[in-house]
Structures are given as C-alpha cells and as structure tokens.
Amino acid sequence: MGESTMTKEEKKALKAEKKARKAAEAGVGEDVDEKAAKKAKKAAKKAKKEADGENVESPTPAKKAKKESAEEATPSKDVEMSEADAKAAKKAKKAAKKAAKEAAAEKEEAAPAKEEAAAAPAEEKAAAAAPAGEGDVKSVFCTNLSWSIDDAALTSHFASAGTVTSIKWIEDRDTGRFKGMGVAEFETAAQAQKAVEACNETEVAGRTMYCRLDNPKPKSDKPKREPRPLKPKPEGGCKLYCGNLSYDIDDAAVRAFFDPLTLNSIRWVTDRNSGDFKGCGFVEFATTEEADSGMAKQGEQLMGRAIRLDWAEDKPKSW
C-alpha cells in the first residue's frame, strides 16, 4: 500500500512504528522499547479499525453511484405487487360494470312482462267489482236540494223525463233532520238517464240541484258482521228492547207493528242533556207469551228500517 492511498490514522501509526524502531536502534532501554512498541502497535490497530470502519460506512462515490443505479433498475417486490393489484382491480371493475349493464338489460326486458302479469289480475278484479251497468239503474241521486222541497215539487221538475214512482229523502241519523239530498226512483232506466241529462244543474225551489245515476256500490269482500247475540230471557220476561228505529216513529206506529199483540207500555230513550230521541226504546207486553211472539218479529221492516229486538229487564231501584 503506497503512502498516497493511506489514511491519516494509518500514516500516524506508521510514523509511531518508525519512531519506535529508531528508538530501539538508538539503544534506548528495553522498557522504553517495549512500551513504545506496544504503544505503536495499539495505535496501528486502532488506525486500522477506524480505516476499516470508514471504508464500510463511506463507500466510494463510484460504488455508491453503482448501487443506486442498480436499485433504480431493479424495482422492489412491493412496487411489483402494487402494480399487479392495480391491474387486477381495473380488471374487476370492468367486469362489474359489464355485469351491471347485463343485469339492467335483463330487468328492462322483464319489466313489460311483469307489468302485463300484474295488470291482468287487476283488470279481472276491477271487472268483478264493477257495478251494474248504467242501463240497469232506475234511481237518480239528487243533492243541494232546497230545505222546503217536497215530493210534488221534485216529481213535477222531473215530469219531462218520465214518471217518478217514489222518492226517499235522506235525513241525519242522529237528529232526523233533512240533509238536502234524496233519491228519486223512475219507471225505467231510460227515464232515469234522461232525467240526469235534462235536469242536472237546474234550479228547483230556488236552489241549483245536482243529480246523477244512483249506481249501486260494489260488493265488499269483507265478511258480514255477525248479528249480536240475544240476552237470555228473564224469567217471566215481558219487556223488549227496540233499536234502529226511525226518527219519525211514534206510539201508533209501534202498536200497529206489533198488532194484534197487546202492549202495556212504550218508553222512548232520549238524550239526557238535549232531550233528542236516540232511535231506540222499550215495549212491555201483557204476557210473557206475547213477548215471545213479539221477539219473532226480529229484523222486520218498520218505517224503512230493520228493527233490532232484544230481551230487557227492569233495573233494581236504588233508594
């Protein structure tokens, strides 16, 4: 190794070694020689170690450049893996888009068929629920009628269309007051149709009347309400409860309904505060046998309503 390529530490060690040799050659004592030799040897070792460390930690610029170029030329495993993952992700994304497009196309193709399948039962149901044709309706529903109107006035107004066979005035269920509406029945469906065409939105008794064919309501699929079970007959019972009565009813109408049975008494139920009739009452027969006969008239028509009967008993008086 030439002196030009030696480090400072190596040069220092070499000088110390030379100095030790000169001292030995000059005849210095053995102790001095040994000490100097050891000291020079230690310095040489130390210099050598430091030189080796610098060589390891600080490579030459040429080696460093070579190493960096090699690292740049050879990509790491992580870079290779990330590029592969990116390619796979792009491929999966394309496949997902393609699958979504195909699914949307299938859905569009299936939609018309589904709509047709759903429309068929709906049409059948509508046909089944449709009311009778207008050609079969003989009654005309009239509204916005004057409070002073009567059978004669409405019959006269419809005279040009045909013959009115009956008129039903619609009243409030609770108060019995006229609600300004009614239903007129004609001899034929053609007359009813003509009455609607000729008399709708015409003036009757000072008010504009509106009318239309009174088409029957479609039948409901709901099961009919079961009749309320009767109370047990009290021993020797003679009294019956009467419900669903007309608000125009009176004693004479009730006695005529149960004739020839004998009624000892009739009591109407009224509101405690207003005194208005509540559409029900009680009748007491002369004998329990006649009460049985009266119960047999359950559901019969009384002034246009189906009467509802049940057994009743006197409440014990509280003193």
TrEMBL record:
Region: Disordered, residue numbers: 1-133, 210-233
Comp. bias (Basic residues): 38-48, 89-98
Pfam (any one): RRM_1
InterPro entries, per the entry: Nucleotide-bd_a/b_plait_sf, RBD_domain_sf, RRM_dom
Keywords: RNA-binding
RRM domain sequence ranges: 138-216, 238-314
Basic and acidic residues bias spans: 1-17, 67-88, 99-126, 214-233
Domain of life: Eukaryota
SMART domains reported for this sequence: RRM
PROSITE patterns according to UniProt: RRM
rRNA-binding recorded as keyword: no
PANTHER family: EUKARYOTIC TRANSLATION INITIATION FACTOR 4B/4H, EUKARYOTIC TRANSLATION INITIATION FACTOR 4H
Name this polypeptide is given: RRM domain-containing protein
Native source organism of the sequence: Aureococcus anophagefferens (Harmful bloom alga)
